[in-house]
Amino acid sequence: MTPPAAAAAEAAAALRVAPAARRPRRAAADPAWVRWGLTALALGALGLLVVAPTALVFAEGLARGWGAYRAALLEPEALRAVRLTLLTAAVAVPANTLFGLCAAWCITRFRWRGKTLLVTLIDLPFGVSPVISGMVTVLLFGSHGLLGPWLQAHDLKVVFAVPGIVMATVFVTFPFVARELIPFLETQGTEEEEAAHLLGASGWQIFWRVTLPNVKWSLLYGVVLCNARAMGEFGAVSVVSGHIRGETNTVPLHVEILYNEYAFSASFAVASLLVLLAAVTLAAKQVVAWRSPSRRASRSLP
Predict the structure, then answer these.
(1) Pseudo-torsion of CA 66, 71, 73, 75, nearest 10°?
(2) For the chain, where are the alpha helices, taking DSSP H only?
(3) Is the separation of the CB atoms in 142 and 148 below 8 Å?
(4) What is the pLDDT of residues 229-278, one digit of tens each?
(5) pLDDT tens readout for residues 147-196
(6) What's the rounded Cα separation, in Å, for the pair 96 and 219?
(7) What gap in Å lies between CA 271 and CA 78, rounded to an integer?
(8) Among 8, 73, 99, 239, which one is most buried in terms of CB atoms within 10 A?
(9) Other CB atoms closer than 10 Å to residue 144's CB: what's the count?
(10) Which residues, 6+ apart, have CB-to-CB distance to 61 below 8 Å?
(11) How far is residue 90's CA from residue 166's CA, in Å, rounded to a whole number?
């Protein structure tokens, strides 16, 4: 075989071998000890960091029996903390739901200057410590803050009162709904809405009959996460609440007070409410994710 022919044959053989060489190795092709080792490591970390603390909360809460556990939950200050937590979530979650819908609609459906700035501001609570947001609330609405003299003159109280707690919670939780809707609306496109507009539908009709039904599962997903964060928020609420027992203490703050007073059994009993809330939130989150169209489409793929 002549040298040019031999070189051509070697090149053809290399091309035939190259795809096999570039083929990525599947996870199932890893050695058994690697698979079992990584699985054991993941399960061990999960048990140490999640399962064991969760079981410890209920064990400590029930250490003095069911009667003491029930008494800690039915204590008047605990009930007031629960009511304040529910009130805060009842205000913050609808407000953030409305804001998330409006923000996601404006960002994904219109072109205007400053859209990037709005997206950045939406992400701001993710990058700022909740304690800082609470301090900003105090600096704005406190007695010596920017708006403090005006509020005092009109006999209005924000800091160390329920309005301050609600405002701090709204600030901390407002990205959740918007951040769930924006990627979904960008992926969905505007074809259905444009078709509805060509058929004579008004803006409200397009929103209620086309857009909202399409985003309902993403919206519910964001609402679930927002509600969980609102009920479990500690840092920002701790700064603006003043820790007034029976008045401005939410459930996380009430747990802290009981723990600092060495009422360990009662503190863990009340903390178990937050653990149950987390369990309900995860269950609702999985149900919403299972019902979402994107998840159903991924399950139907071969």
Answers:
(1) 180
(2) 3-22, 32-46, 52-61, 66-73, 76-109, 115-122, 124-127, 130-141, 148-153, 162-173, 175-188, 191-198, 203-206, 212-232, 235-241, 251-260, 264-291, 293-300
(3) yes
(4) 999 889 889 999 888 888 889 999 999 999 998 888 999 999 998 888 88
(5) 888 888 888 888 889 999 999 999 999 899 999 898 888 888 778 888 88
(6) 11
(7) 11
(8) 239
(9) 8
(10) 69, 72, 265, 268, 269, 271, 272
(11) 10
Nearest Cα neighbor of 57 from 257, 280, 276, 234 is 276
Tokens of 241: 């609440």
Radius of gyration, CA atoms only, the chain:
27
Tokens of 166: 């609600």
Query: C-alpha distances in angstroms, 127 versus 69, 122, 124, 131, 269?
Result: 38, 10, 5, 12, 32
The closest of 136, 203, 213 to 170, measured between CA atoms, is: 136
The rounded distance, in Å, linking the Cα atoms of 180 and 148 is 36
Which two tokens mark 236? Answer: 């920002």
pTM, entire model: 0.78
